[in-house]
Amino acid sequence: MGGSEGVGEKVFRVPSAMFAVPNDDRVRRRKETFELLGQQVSNLTRLVNEKKNIGRKIQAAAEAAEETFERLTKLDEKVTVVDLHRESVGAQTTPSLMRRRGEPITPQGPEEAEYTK
Question: Which CA distances in Å does 28 have to 3, 22, 69, 86?
């Protein structure tokens, strides 16, 4: 050792077996593993988001179906009321019209006369 070399420095020799120095193959495999994990994370994130969207669509469809069912139920109630009203009006109208007329219903032409025989 000459001149300024080694002045104030202590040099220790350490056997290379003490430190695990990754070789190029191990580094490459780790890098590939992390890249694959990153891809899987992004795939899983995409799937979760798709499932959320599907869930929202299902929820919206269920709400729309419920609203439609409620509207149909109300319409059914109205139709039932109208049908009952028609039946009751029809049941009262036919005999009452016949009573009001005062004269018996007679055939008007020869074709109708055959029906009365």
Answer: 43, 10, 61, 85
To the question of pTM greater than 0.90 for the whole model, the response is no
Where are the chain's structural domains? Answer: 25-98
The tally of CA atoms less than 13 A away on the side-chain side of residue 34 is 5
Give, in degrees to the nearest 5, the angle at Cα 64 between 59 and 66. Answer: 95
Question: CB-side exposure of 104: number of CA atoms within 13 Å?
Answer: 3
Annotate the chain with three-state secondary structure.
CCCCCCCCCCCCCCCHHHCCCCCHHHHHHHHHHHHHHHHHHHHHHHHHHHHHHHHHHHHHHHHHHHHHHHHHHHHHHHHHHHHHHHHHHHHHHHHHHHHHHCCCCCCCCHHHHHHHC
Low-confidence ranges of the chain (pLDDT < 50): 1, 101, 113, 115-117
